[in-house]
């Protein structure tokens, strides 16, 4: 088990991936494309959060379930980056995703189906790792889809377990896993607009409707709902109030991992002692800086700080 610094952020990735990026001038279906050698990156939402935290200088540990040749490559690659990892080796081969990026910045993704859980014991092993490495004051990021045969309420169980031990949680998933997990009231939830609409069961056509819809989860006990709005930035409903976070226009090279980098930015800012408004600014700046880079690599702290100066946070007064 790696030597850890506290407080720290532990990320949990139950279905990591090897992300293969192919770059072409223009994608034309049905035609031949001659491209440069594809580039492989370690992928998976929790892993992306850990990569960004490491770039920002915040202590992190990536806990994953991975298997086969691609799983071994994933762990070795992360360790080669200097990341602290704790992998549960499973029977199921780790998936590979194909990302095609055109020169205009348009991204076309071919993501492999989320695998089944190799063994029920894999989740028990992962939970035992969390029990060994976590101490009060740490944060756990639970992100990505659950394996297809995993209990749909698994994230919620982990949230409840962490709360009982003074450990804070971030939940970033979708569908039934989000619906079940949010009932346990993690400190932070980060849906996008589509995920929030599915959660509340209706379309949300304005910023005011988005903020009001998220307020029900604050009433239930969630501290902060960070809603990704793409190029429009963030909408935030929290116990601190409601906010619109506007970001500058940038040249987009890859949006893969932008939401994960936003989560990392919020946690880094929180650990650094920034006030809530500046933590939102830093989160939005981190996500924005990430799309300027190729692949799913994390931006540097300097790149984020440059964007930070251009982010505008406005407190919203919305009747609920």
CATH fold naming: UDP-N-acetylmuramoyl-L-alanine:D-glutamate ligase
Reported for the largest beta sheet, the result is:
10 strands, mixed
The Rg value, from CA coordinates, equals: 19 Å
Distance between the termini: 48 Å
Do you know the CATH architecture? Answer: 3-Layer(aba) Sandwich
Secondary-structure element string: EEEHEHEEEHEHEHEHHEEEHHHE
Average pLDDT works out at: 92
What class, by secondary structure content? alpha/beta
Helix share of residues?
25-40%
CATH top level assignment: Alpha Beta
Low-confidence stretches: none
Side by side, the strands of the main sheet go 5-4-1-8-9-10-11-12-13-14
Q: Number of DSSP strands?
A: 14
CATH superfamily: Ribokinase
Q: What is the overall silhouette?
A: globular
Number of domains: 1
Number of helices: 10
- Strand residue percentage: 15-25%
């Amino acid at each position: 088990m790696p030597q850890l610094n506290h407080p720290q952020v532990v990320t949990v990735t139950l279905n990591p991936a090897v992300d293969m990026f192919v770059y072409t001038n223009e994608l034309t279906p049905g035609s031949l494309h001659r491209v440069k050698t594809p580039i492989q990156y370690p992928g998976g939402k929790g892993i992306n959060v850990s990569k960004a935290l490491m770039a920002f200088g915040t202590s992190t540990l990536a806990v994953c379930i991975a298997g086969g040749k691609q799983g071994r490559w994933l762990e070795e690659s992360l360790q080669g980056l200097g990341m602290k990892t704790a992998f549960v080796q499973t029977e199921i081969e780790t998936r590979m995703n194909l990302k095609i990026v055109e020169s205009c910045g348009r991204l076309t993704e071919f993501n492999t189906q989320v695998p089944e859980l190799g063994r029920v014991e894999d989740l028990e092993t992962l939970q035992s790792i969390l029990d060994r490495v976590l101490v009060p004051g740490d944060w756990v990021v639970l992100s990505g889809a659950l394996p297809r045969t995993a209990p749909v309420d698994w994230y919620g169980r982990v949230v409840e377990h962490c709360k009982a031990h003074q450990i804070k949680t971030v939940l970033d998933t979708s569908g039934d896993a989000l619906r079940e997990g949010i009932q346990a009231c993690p400190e932070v939830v980060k849906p996008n607009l589509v995920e929030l609409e599915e959660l509340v069961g209706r379309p949300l056509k304005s910023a005011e409707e988005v903020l009001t819809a998220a307020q029900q989860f604050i009433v239930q006990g969630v501290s902060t709902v960070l809603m990704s709005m793409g190029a429009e930035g963030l909408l935030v409903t929290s116990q601190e109030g409601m906010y619109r976070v506007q970001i500058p226009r940038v040249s987009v090279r890859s949006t893969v991992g932008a939401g994960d980098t936003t989560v990392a930015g919020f946690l880094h800012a929180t650990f650094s002692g920034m006030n809530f408004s500046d933590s939102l600014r830093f989160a939005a700046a981190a996500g924005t800086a990430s799309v300027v880079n190729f692949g799913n690599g994390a931006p540097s702290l300097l790149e984020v700080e440059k964007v930070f100066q251009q982010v505008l946070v406005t407190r919203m007064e919305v009747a609920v």
